[in-house]
Amino acid sequence: MTVVRALQPPPEAPLQVARVLHTAGFEAWFVGGCVRDRLLGREVGDWDLTTNARPEQVIPLFARTIPTGIAHGTVTVVLGGSSIEVTTYRVELGYSDGRRPDGVAFTDDLRRDLERRDFTINAMAWDPDRGLLVDPFGGQADLADRCLRAVGRAFDRFSEDGLRTLRAIRFATVLDFDIEPLTFAAIRETLAVFRQVSAERIHVELVKILGSPHAGRGLSWLIESGLLDEFLPGLPLEASSIADALRVAVPSLTVRCALLFGELHDPAAGLTRLKFSLAQRRDILAVLASREIDPEAVLTDADARRFVAKVGKENLDAIEGYQAALSADQTAWSGLFGRLSRCGARDAPVTARELALTGHDVMSRLALPPSREVGRIVQALIERVLEAPELNDAETLAALLPEVAASLRPDER
Ligand code: ATP
Ligand code: MG
Fold it and tell me: What is the pTM of this model?
């Protein structure tokens, strides 16, 4: 146990929860990510507490609690608009499936609770009121060295729970740490255990890696350790070029996913397998569709507006970010985006919704019933407006209607 230098204390609500537990005669420590992040001076996400109180002893101490994971010892205390997870000291009773412990048992020994945790920097407990830090595995030293190290033998710890290998790369990526060599070597030695991890959990970690400013470094580790090949098989050998692209890419998740999944033979299948949502898939595939476009064929302002209509305004930023990170020779694409800005194509009317006449207007002005013909007339109007945006005014378009309707081929009516 060490006395810690003055650290900024936790916010009022979590501090209050710890004090209530202390006053009732229990031990209570902030633990895990919040301690790590406070010591690093990073913003803290969740203020988690670990205690020797059993769930049934925690619940009566607070007005509002949620039995989040009673069987595993976790009670969520709701106080002052915050939720604080309070978990009883526990040990894990063996792992037979590489995913979750066969059971957990409560203990009265804080050290044993810290021992079950994954990395030294995540295995510290802090009591801000007393200024005490419990750090049995050298977490502070590893923070100072910016080193990610498993608690105990990495091979054993990764053999228990396959997710820890990917968490190792995620933490090192997000924190911009190195990975201690034995910890890193153990990733490759336990790939068979990693195969038990669900796609949902891989998704969560992958998104954090790709979202990090150091995503390129993370991807290099994923490749080198063999993990990437486990959950995204079929990437080309020169996958390291993806890491280079990630190093320069804007921080958009869509762009970064496009850079990674775009190297697969079937990006859509890869995204589905790794549980990306429908909306995420649509955005990423829209970016990848830009690969079919030849930017050098966009020669005029009208071409630029047609390009915007084709790819969709909502996808422009991501396409720009993707092409900028991807192409070694960016002149053609940056020329295209320069033209878009100069000619105002990003704000030009390019869809039916932006047209000054609605389908209803077309029907009433031409006395037409709802029909495919109406849709074709609207489409023809859009094409006119793409050619000359100044036509997009209700009266001007209305005046064009007879001519546009007459110009449809008979089979289009
Ligand atoms: P984050 O900032 O991502 O929330 P965190 O360290 O809080 O980081 P959590 O997943 O919220 O990570 O878990 C809280 C703590 O529980 C960790 O700090 C670690 O001590 C422990 N822990 C979580 N998952 C595991 C695991 N798979 N194996 C061992 N210990 C774990
Ligand atoms: Mg957390």
Answer: 0.92
Q: Is residue 33 in contact with ligand 1, taking CB distance under 6 Å?
A: yes
Strand-pairing partners, residue 177, are none
Q: Per residue in 341-394, pLDDT tens?
A: 999 999 999 999 999 999 999 999 999 999 999 999 999 999 999 999 999 999
What pLDDT score does 412 carry? Answer: 65
SS3 content of the chain, % helix, strand, coil (to 5): 60, 10, 30
Spatial CB neighbours of 338, under 8 Å, sequence gap ≥ 6: none
pLDDT at 263 over 70: yes
Q: Is 214 in the pocket of ligand 1 (CB under 6 A)?
A: no
Backbone angles phi, psi at 212, to 5 degrees: -80, 150
Q: Where are the beta strands (DSSP E) in 140-273?
A: 147-148, 178-179
Can you say whether the dihedral through the CA atoms of 330, 332, 337, 342 is positive or negative?
A: positive
What φ, ψ does residue 29 adopt, rounded to 5°? -135, 140
Ion ligand 2 neighbours (CB, 5 A) are 33, 46
The residue extents of the domains of the chain are 2-139, 146-231, 239-343, 352-412
Residue 55 Cβ inside 6 Å of ligand 1? The answer reads no
Range 2-139 classified under CATH 3.30.460.10 = yes
Of all protein residues, the one whose alpha carbon is nearest to atom 12 of ligand 1 is 33
**Which residue has the CA at smallest separation from atom 2 of ligand 1?**
33
Residue 17 has a CB neighbour count (10 Å cut-off) of 27
Give the CATH architecture of domain 146-231.
Orthogonal Bundle (1.10)
- One-letter amino acid identity for 5? R
Ligand number with the minimum distance to the CA of 205: 1
Ligand 1 atom closest to Cα of 37? 2
Cα of 250 from ligand 1 centre, angstroms: 28
Report the nearest-CA residue for atom 7 of ligand 1.
33
**Rounded Cα distance, 293 and 271, in Å:** 22
Task: Describe the crossing of helices 316-326 and 331-343 by its angle, rounded to 10 degrees.
Answer: 150
